[in-house]
Structures are given as C-alpha cells and as structure tokens.
Amino acid sequence: MKAKSAFLGIDTSAYTTSVAVVDEDGVCLSDARRLLEIKTGERGLRQSEAFFQHVNHLPERLEQALMDASRPQLSAIAVSRAPRDVEGSYMPVFQAGVRIAESLSITLGIPLYRTTHQDGHLMAGCQSHPVLLERPFLAVHLSGGTTEILVCRYVGKGFQAKLVGGSKDLSFGQLIDRVGVRLGLPFPAGKAMEALILEGETAENVVFKPSVFPKVRPSAWFNLSGLENKAYSLLEAGETPAQVAAGLMDCLSRTLMEALRCVQSTLDCGDIKDVLIIGGVASNLRLRADLEQGLRKMKPCPLNARYASVAASSDNAIGVALIAKACYQQGETE
C-alpha cells in the first residue's frame, strides 16, 4: 500500500518557532512549537535576539515534528516569508525559517512554496470552516503585531485579501501585552489577563462593569493608544488590576464591533455572511463570546463568527503546511 504524501510547514513569527506536518487529506500529523524566551518585565524581543532563538530552536522543533508524524515521506514544504502579502511587509525573524526550508528543499529535492504568516492563520481557520474556501468572507486578524479587517477570497494556493479597516497605531496584542506587563503579568500577557479577569469575577462574585473605559466609536479605522493611557490612569486612581483588565477587554470588543458595522455598511449583505477571527488574541474566550454575541445581533445583516480552534489561533505552522499541500496538489511551481 502506497504511503500517503505529507507536507511540512515552517513559521518563525515574532515569538514562536513552529513546525507542522499534514497529510494529503489535510489531517494534522504533528504540531511542534516553542515560545521564544522573554525576560520577566520585558515587553518583547529585538529582532536579532528573536532570530538567534529561532535558529537554535528550529532543529529540535523539526525533529519533534517529524518524529510525531512517524517520519513521513515529504512531498513539499511551505514557509512563511513575511508577515503579510503586501509590499514592504518584512521582518528579519522570518528569514530563519526561510533559510532552513530552502536547505531542506534542496537536500530532499522537493518543492518549496513561500507564503505569509497571515495566510497561514487564514488557512488554519478555514480548516475548521471549509465552507469559507468556497465564498468570500471577512477576516479579522488580531495578534501582537496586527489588528486588521480584511475582505478575503481563497484562490487555490492562498488568499486575496483587501484591507478595509483596523488599528492605525497599536495592535490589540500590543495593547494587551503593554497593559498586562504594567499589571505585573508575564509577557505575552493574553492568557494571564484572561485568567485574571475570571479569578477576579469569581472572587467578587460579579461581572466587572465596562464603564471604567470610554465608549470608542471608530470608523472602520481606529486608534488604540489612548486606551493604554486610560488603563494606566485607572490603576493610579485605585481601580483593581482585574477591573482594569475586564474593562479593557470589553472596550476592545466594542471597538471592533463598531468597526465591523462600518465595514458591513459598505458591503452587500448577500455577499458576506461570515467573519473569520484569527491570530493569537482570537484565542481569548471572553473576547470570542462578546464578538459572537454581537455579530449575531448585527444589523441589518447578522454575521457568523468563525474561529480556528483555540490551539490553532495562536501562532503555528499548521496553516502553512496546508498551503504546501494545496500548492502541490494543484501542480503549482515554486
């Protein structure tokens, strides 16, 4: 019996070294990741330090991914070469993955497909919702480096994405991490902030009110830096860390809902039925619940909130491996 083809994905984002393997049916055979190490109290890494850690982590992650997948016969490789598929999108950290992918492609004599970190997130989300591969949809990319609203369409080897809204300054992830570090939480702060809100509500037996933050009424484009300053002033005024964290998350969800309403007003309701919410911030269960409820009540046309699994929302190479599979099966050249 002929063994199934397998496809390797590599992604070296700002804070995670990721390697994954999928089979010819799109089943994930392995998913090996490692967070980069960040000193306590720091709010990130220099690109040179992140690159150095990726170079050191990639061999062990690659070995783990291949072992977990029972050392399959690889047919093709894909690698994230840049954050997004737009001119000028570049981060040195992605070159760590590109170089090892190029070496593997030459050594094994198999095709190498270059994609983007954002397309990897989109493909990982579409794996959970394959209907999105057949029709246009809105995507919201929420991460440490990106807060964007996109109109997307799958084109066989990746996505056509038109940028229609988002943040003009800080990303959702940056804001959460900056405020989180001020609250004494580890970086990146998303999971710890979610736990802080839940623990605070349990201890006080109340749901924290969002009134500590102003209501932001953005266009499809908005600024978030004022919310960072507001969070710090609330802490200095005596609000508890849990109250500030809960108010911040509520304000972010309301801001995004207002932006999506603005985007929807420019679209034909019959064309777009779904919003795929991707990126590490999208794994926040509180934010998911708020957005899902708001999108169901959207007027004039409700929208379906779609997510990748919580595990596939954070940075990973599963979507990148799926892009390798799609390109190879469609006979794409490198």
Q: For this structure, what is the CATH homologous superfamily of the largest domain?
A: ATPase, nucleotide binding domain
Number of continuous helical runs: 10
Q: Compute the average pLDDT.
A: 90
What helical percentage do the residues reach?
A: 40-55%
**CATH architecture annotation of the largest domain:** 2-Layer Sandwich
**Structural class designation:** alpha/beta
**For the report, how would you describe the main beta sheet?**
6 strands, mixed
Q: Output the CATH class name of the largest domain.
A: Alpha Beta
Order the strands across the largest sheet as they lie in space.
9-8-7-6-10-11
Protein name: N(6)-L-threonylcarbamoyladenine synthase
Catalytic activity: L-threonylcarbamoyladenylate + adenosine(37) in tRNA = N(6)-L-threonylcarbamoyladenosine(37) in tRNA + AMP + H(+)
Keywords: Acyltransferase, Metal-binding, Transferase, tRNA processing
GO molecular function, one term: metal ion binding
